[in-house]
Structure formats: C-alpha cells, structure tokens
Amino acid sequence: MRARVALLVALCASAAHAQLPAPAPPPHDSGLPLPSYWERGVSRPFVAATLELGWTYVRPEFAVGFGRPFHRWMGLDLKPIVTTTGAGFYGGLRGSVPFFDLRAGVRHFEAFEHRLLPEQEHHGRAELDTPRGPEPEAYSVESEVSGSIAVPGGGPFWLAGVYYLSNVKQGYHLYEESLKVIVDPPWVFRLRSGYAWQFGPRDALRLGIAEEILENPGRPGYVIRAGVIGGAAIGDNLDVQLSLLPVIHSPDSLGLAGADFGHLGVRWRWATAGPRRRRR
Amino acid sequence: MRRLCSALAAGTASWLAAAQPAKAEPDSRAPHVLFAPKPDARPRLEWRFRRVQAWELYATSGLAIAAVGAYAAGASADRWKGGIGFDDGARGSLRPASYQTRRSARDASDLTLALGVAQPMLGDGLLTSYWYHQSPDVAEQVLLINAETLAITIAVQTSVSSLASRERPYGDDCGAELDPELNDCAKRDRYRSFFSGHAATAFSAASVSCMHHLHLPLYGGGAADVASCAAGYALAGATSALRVVGDMHYASDVAVGAAWGTLAGLGVPWLLHYRHPQGSRRGAARVHLVPHPTGVAIGGAF
Predict the structure, then answer these.
(1) What are the CA-CA distances from residue A72 to residues A76, A268, B5 (Å)?
(2) C-beta neighbour count of A113 within 10 angstroms
C-alpha cells in the first residue's frame, strides 16, 4: 500500500512541478549576500499554497494573509490532511516573522483504522491495530509557537505546543494521529528542540538533531523522542525534507506508530505575485 | 468557464505539438513536464540518451491507474495457502515468537523501503541531478524514468497478488495467537502474500538507481557510484529479509518479488533509454493506438 501511495505521490509531483517557469532577473552584483527568495518583494495581500508530497502523505496547505508569504506575514491558514491512515483538516490563524512563528487553530482527523482504546496504563501495537472501541471523533484546539536562531553555519531551533482534545468518550484513550501518541484527554503539551547545521553551496543543505518531550497529565510518564532532521533547498520554492524521531521512552509500545516519521519528500511553495526568481 | 476551456485547449495543443516529431530534433517528441528548460544555463551534466517520450507518460499514468484498480479489485480468500519448498523452513528459523517483535520488523521494512525509493527519487533525481549538477533536464529524465519503472513494477505486482490471492504466513495465527479482529486478520490484504510488493519495489528502486549511476557520473563516476549501487541493493535485501521476519511473506514471495523488481528496474531504463544514445535512429521508438471493433489495439516498433 505504501509503495503504491509513493507512486501516486511521484505522479502528483509531476503535475505539481509542471508549473515552474523560470523568468531570469538581472544578475545581482552588489557583492552583498542575496536575500532568500521569500524575503524579497513587498508586503501585500496574498494567497499562498504549500504542497508537501512524500512517503505516504500529501499535505496541501493554503494561506490568505498580508505581508511577505512564508517570511513575514499574518493571516488564515487552512490544511486538508490526507494520509494512508486517515483524513482531516486544520484551520486557524498564523503570524510569522523571521525566526518566529505562532499559530492557533482547530484540527479534526477521521482515522481509517484506529479506534478509541479502553483506559489502560500500557498500550501495545496489537491493541492499536484492533478496531474494537468506538470511532474517535475528536477535535483538537491547539496552539504552537516555534522559532530558531540563525548563527553562521546553522543554529538552534525549538517548538512549544499546547493541545486541548475534546469530544472523546469518557473511559477511553485516544491515539492522536498527528502527535503519534496515546493520550488521556484533554491536555497535551509538547516541547521540541534541536540544532541544525547548514552547509554546502549557499548553505542549501541542512542536517541536525532534535529531541521532543510530550506530556499528557492524564497518563503516567512522558513520551520522549529523538532523531535526525534534514533538508535541502534545491530551488527557490522547492525543498527536500527529512525527519525521523523514533521513540526513546514511552508508557506504550507502538513501534513506528509512536515515532515521528514526519517527512521524507518534497515541499513546493507558491504565492500570488511572488518575487522574481534569481538566476541560478 | 470559456476562458478556462480556451486555456485547456491551448495547453493541450501546445503539449501535443511538443509531442510531434520534428525533423531537426529527432527526439523532440519528449515534452518537458517537470522542469522548464533553461536555455542560458550551462548544466554540469547532460542527458545523452533517448528521452522519455509522450507515449511513455500516457503509459505510466495508465499503469498507475491499473495498479490502483488491481488493488481495489481485492484478493480472494482460500485460494492459495501455505508454504512451498523452502518456505516453511525459512519461516521457522526467521519468525520471532512475539507479535510485537514481528510488528517492529514490519515497521523497519517500511522504513527501509521508504529510504530505498528515496534514493532514486530524492537522491539521484532532485538532490544530485537538479541541485548539485544544476541539470533540470537530467533530473527530469531521471525522475520520469523512475516513475515509469516503479509504475510497471507495482502494476504487475498488484495484479499478480490479486490473482494469486495467497494467504500471508500470519494467517495461520488468526483466531489463535492473533485476535481475529486485528486489522491484519480482518482485511483482504491478508491474501496478498504472492508476491512481495515491498521486495519488488525496493529492488526496482535499487536497480533503476544503479542504471542511472552506471550511465551518468552522478557522483563523478567510479567507486562512489558503484558504492551507491551496492548500498541500494543492501537496503533492498534488508527490506526483503524483514518482510519474512515480520511474517508478512514467505521466502518464495520475496524471492519472486526481488527477481521481478530487479528485472523491471534494470530492463525498463535500459530497453527504453540507456541503450539508445541520443540521436541514434534506434532511439526513435514508435507506438500506435489503433481503433478496433472490440476496443483499442496497441502496436509499436522499437
């Protein structure tokens, strides 16, 4: 199934990349470093889209706002979510300035395979893979703030999130499909930090380490994950992304279902009246 | 709406025009579908083989649809059950006792497969050809060849697994060690053991990547390209072994999957592209669709 989805993703990528014309602006010869693609241009009202295509996921994202998209802006954010395990949406407000990003909104996800789990101290993978409980119909009201510090050659980054899960039946735990963790609603807290090194021509390559702690007051213990993140800015609006944070410590035994295998694919970004591309 | 239709018509016309053979450029039937050409750029790597043709894009799309259709058609229960030859011996020696360990092996096989497919797609296509060598043209050809190779690999695999409908090894345990309501036991995917899609896809990806590295100096030629090839096959081998350890397939399933994947991964790029240096008359393959009273016939000269 995953292999088939990968092919579809590859074919969709073909269609998505078909619209990448490359008008050539005059060469920049001031001797100063070029601002990044999305830093250029002027603040304006805009519509923007992001398409993430990768291993078993398609993540389109739409934004309407004012500012310089993907750089310094505020507005509305809408994300349909489609994976092999379910489908849903996220909608909310978002504000972004260089090295700092804040979002708040509501998310709903319909799982194809997973059901609510009877309250227990420990959950195993077989239990998660057996659809016996009621269907989950949870909503998450959530907010995340993230940032990074740019120093030559790389820098630290961090993310803090608060999630309030509602509409979950009493006496049941929920496998939260986005956070990849079994929770006793309503509150979940998340803290991620890491360091990424940048290198290569124009510092286009990024490789780093990250660790993450999730705390759910309703359940004993923490979930701790740690792993690698990476990426490559291969074009003005095209990136390759990788992140894999396996579970280091958890009250449950979920295997890869508990890991954050967030990215292995490409991200393409577009906005109305985008800045002109630089000569490669 | 009229404007949209005009745009669609204009787009189709220009695409079809690009798909027509031109006298000056014998290979100009190959449209650019991923990256726009940059006439003023000097790429560090040039494509010197037969390009992906318009008909191949249609065929790839058709194969992708066929793969989805074959999967949706489902598999039948109780058609083929149990091991053959060395299957039971291999299962007995490789299968861990606990479900949790077997599930971990399956997870690991998903991960190695993802990395294996990323090698020709993200590694060879986007990172090496497009970004490092600044060659959108080579990247486009590499990505399209990957797509057509994986499409034919998966279309055949899904069709055969639907027709064969062999029960996966763990089927023996459903209702005993395994809960009959477990997704693995309750779903039709339980009857898709022959042949292994993971093994076929992993070996196909490793093989097509190898073909790229053998014909293009993606890593400068020599030892680094050979090492990339070896790493791809090692990853494919690990993926296949983990499918047996995870009790998802018999050894014969992964052996046939690996053989088909290798054949498709080496054969498709070589037959359609790498054996035809650019400009060669042999490279001008032709395919014709001919209306027929009972459908459509396809014919071609290669």
Answers:
(1) 14, 18, 37
(2) 15
Nearest CB to A20; choose among B36, B111, B150: B36
Q: CA A179, A183, A189, A191: dihedral to nearest 10 degrees?
A: -50
Q: Is the minimum CB–CB distance between A132 and chain B shorter than 8 Å?
A: yes
Tell me the pLDDT band of A17, cut-offs 50, 70 and 90: very low
Subunit contact A234:B184, Cβ cutoff 8 A? no
Cα of B140 to nearest chain A Cα, Å:
9
Tokens of B135: 């060659």
Residues of A in contact with B103 (CB under 8 A): 125-126, 129, 255
pLDDT tens by residue, B175-200 = 999 999 999 999 989 999 999 999 99
CA-based nearest residue in chain B for residue A252: B100
Other CB atoms within 10 A of residue B204 CB: 34
Chain B residue with the nearest C-alpha to that of A234 = B131
* Token pair listed for B190: 């339980």
Interface of A with B in 37-56 (CB under 8 A): 55-56
**pLDDT at site B282:** 47
Contact B268/A at CB under 8 A: no
Instruction: Return d(Cα B71, Cα B51) in angstroms, integer.
Output: 30
Helices (H) and strands (E) in chain A, counts: 2, 16
Question: Is this prediction's ipTM beyond 0.85?
Answer: no
Residues 150-169, chain B, touching A (beta carbon < 8 A)? 150-151, 154, 158
Q: Which of B115, B150, B179 sits opposite A126 (nearest CB)?
A: B179
Helix, strand, coil shares of chain B as percentages rounded to 5? Answer: 65, 5, 30
Q: Tell me the nearest-neighbour CA distance from A45 into chain B, angstroms.
A: 25
- pLDDT tens-place string over residues A78-111: 999 887 788 899 999 999 998 899 999 999 988 8
What burial letters (b/e) apply to B23-62, b meaning 16+ CB within 10 Å? eeeebebbbebbbeebeeeebebebebbbbbbbbbebbee
* Best residue of A1, A5, A12, A14 to probe chain B, by most B CBs closer than 10 Å: A14
Report d(CA B254, CA B251) in Å as an integer: 5
Residue in chain B nearest A53 by alpha carbon: B122
Largest Cα–Cα separation, chain B: 69
pTM across the whole model: 0.81
The arrangement of strands across the sheet holding A172-176 comes to A117-118, A172-176, A181-183
- Count of C-beta atoms within a 10 Å radius of residue A229: 22
For chain A, domains (ranges, CATH) are: 22-271 (2.40.160.40)
DSSP string, A152-178: TTEEEEEEEEEEEEES--TTEEEEETT
Which positions ≥6 away from B232 have C-beta within 8 Å?
B116, B119, B205, B206, B207, B209, B210
With pLDDT > 70 as the criterion, what percentage of chain A qualifies?
Answer: 85
CB pair distance less than 8 Å for A255 and B197: no
